[in-house]
Amino acid sequence: MADKDDPCDLLKGTPGYEYCRGDHAGGGHPGPGAGGSGVADGATDHVQKLADSLLGTLKHLVAPGKSWAPEKADNAVYAQFFWLGQHLAVAIFVCVVVVCALTAWQGAPRLKQMGTSTGWALAAVAGMASVPGVVMLLNRAISSAFTTMFASNESTLFGAISHDMEHGADAGNPLAVLLIFAALVVALAFAALVFMTRQLGILVFVCMAPLVLASLARGDDASAVRAWAGRLLGVMFAPFALLVLSPFVAFAKGSLVVDAVLLVAADVLMLRMIFHGIPYFGPRVARGARAFVEGRTDNRVARAVVRAGVPDVYERENSPARRRTVDTPSRAIHQDRGVLLAAYGVKQRKREGQMTTASTITQVRERAARTAEITQARQQARAANQPQTPGCRAPASGQSGAPASGRPRTPAPRRQPSNPQPGSGPTPNP
User: Fold this and answer.
1) How many angstroms separate the CA atoms of 326 and 316, rounded?
2) More confident residue, 129 or 27
3) Are 123 and 219 in contact (CB under 8 A)?
4) Residues 124-153: pLDDT tens digits?
5) Distance from chain centroid for Cα 362
6) 10 Å Cβ neighbour count for 243?
7) What is the distance between the alpha carbons of residues 394 and 401, in angstroms, rounded to a whole number?
8) N or C: which end of the chain has fewer CB within 10 A?
9) Helix and strand element counts for the chain (H, E)
10) How far apart are CA 395 and CA 408, in angstroms?
11) Which residues contact 47 (CB under 8 A, 6 or more apart)?
12) CB of 282 within 8 A of CB of 290?
């Protein structure tokens, strides 16, 4: 009779019958009336698994264990640049040897230059072959460190979110669960943007390695190598910007709502990672993401979040350093190309400074209101400082002959003639 009261019997013959009768571990039915408990436990388990899946995807997008860059020197893409870099290094070394042979009468300086060129040429060729493997190992180390710092235990950001989904104070609140899922989905969108820009950046800089390292064969000018290494390491270590959130994880533990706020802060930091960490095209990609969000929502919070991640800046093409300005992709590439050509001994012509048309228009519009206020204030101050004649009153604006300044016009004295004519004086009395 007890089995007849089991509500799961209504699902006999359907795929949901076994799911209704099973507990959250997939075992047998504990007794009559326990089917509702099994459904609730199963739903909770699915929510937890979905959250863990989203967090895992987010972690792999921000700091993936594998990159798009070639892992070996014999890669089909990297081999072309490797061949070009080797031949450039050999050509430069041959030119140095010829020059030293033609100027051998100078003695020790030319001999020293030839020895330096020989050593740096060998180091450059060895470096070209080892760059892909070094970048692969470094990327794996960064991914492992990121996982340890953000998803290893309950005191990390992703670990705390996963724990709060199951044991948090508001874990059973549907609104809190919906809020954290919305924050996770938005964070995934920004993480995907970070993934694309970061992977492309690593690929480009690894393929550029032979061309940059070949400049070492000329001598001890390593300026191009330092600039290239700085760009590459900046792209690779960009995910560690999220370490700013680590001190706040302890305050957010136990509340899904506060976890969602931390995820929003992570979105801001990811936009900053793109803006500052990705060279050349990073600022423009981040501004495009901001324009995309602002064009599709009127929510003040969403607009404030993207503005915090992507500040208002002006673009400069070739102008000198100004406040709140960033380089256009063409200018940034032009500057780094100049460093590389200088390492090869070629001078690059500098272009005249100017801001982009769009930035100039934006700057004029922003300054128009302030310029009008300053002009009005100056006119009022100039009118207040003009002195007036005591005891005289300015004529009305409708009177003719009044000067523009408002001062009364004094009639000029009449000049008497020096030699009066006869008969022009007063008539004497008879």
Assistant:
1) 6
2) 129
3) no
4) 899 999 999 999 999 999 988 888 888 777
5) 20
6) 13
7) 12
8) C
9) 13, 2
10) 7
11) 165, 177
12) no
Alpha carbon distance 199, 235 (integer Å): 9
Span of 16-25, 222-231, 296-305 with lowest mean pLDDT:
16-25
274: which strand partners?
none
Length of the chain: 430
Query: What are the b/e assignments for 155-186, b being 16+ CB within 10 Å?
Result: ebbbbbbbbbbeebebbeeeebbebbbebbeb
Contacts of 123 (CB under 8 A, 6+ apart): 216
Q: What is the pLDDT of residue 254?
A: 73
CA 336 to CA 397: how far, in whole Å?
A: 65
Query: Quick one: tokens of 38?
Result: 């099994």
Q: What share of the chain is helix, strand, coil (3-state, %, to 5)?
A: 65, 0, 30
Least confident of 25-39, 77-91, 205-219, 309-323: 25-39
Contact partners, residue 290, CB within 8 Å, separation at least 6: 271, 306, 307, 309, 310
Whether the CB-CB separation of 217 and 124 falls below 8 Å is answered with yes
Q: Full-prediction pTM beyond 0.85?
A: no
d(CA 15, CA 238): 48
Asked if residues 269 and 244 have their Cβ atoms less than 8 Å apart, the reply is yes
pLDDT (average), residues 313-341: 68
Are the CB atoms for 177 and 41 separated by under 8 Å?
Answer: no
Residue position matching structure tokens 């960064």:
142
DSSP three-state, residue 67: coil
Residue 386 has pLDDT above 50, yes or no: yes
Burial 212-229 (b: 16+ CB within 10 A, else e): bbbbbbbeeebebbebbe
Structure token pair of residue 427: 């008539």
Sequential DSSP letters for 331-368: HHHHHHHHHHHHHTT---PPPPP-B-HHHHHHHHHHHH
Contact between 263 and 187 under an 8 Å Cβ cutoff? The reply is yes
Residue 325's SS3 state is strand
d(CA 226, CA 203): 18
* Dihedrals phi, psi of 355, to nearest 5 degrees: -90, 160
Contact 260, 171 (CB under 8 A): no
Going by C-beta distance under 8 Å and a sequence separation of 6 or more, which residues neighbour residue 418?
none
- Give whole-number Cα distances, 141 to 145, 205, 343, 366, 416, in Å: 6, 19, 31, 46, 106
Contact status, residue 11 vs residue 17, Cβ threshold 8 Å = yes
Backbone dihedral angles phi then psi of residue 104, each to the nearest 5 degrees: -65, -20
Find, among 383, 105, 340, the residue nearest to 223 by Cα: 340
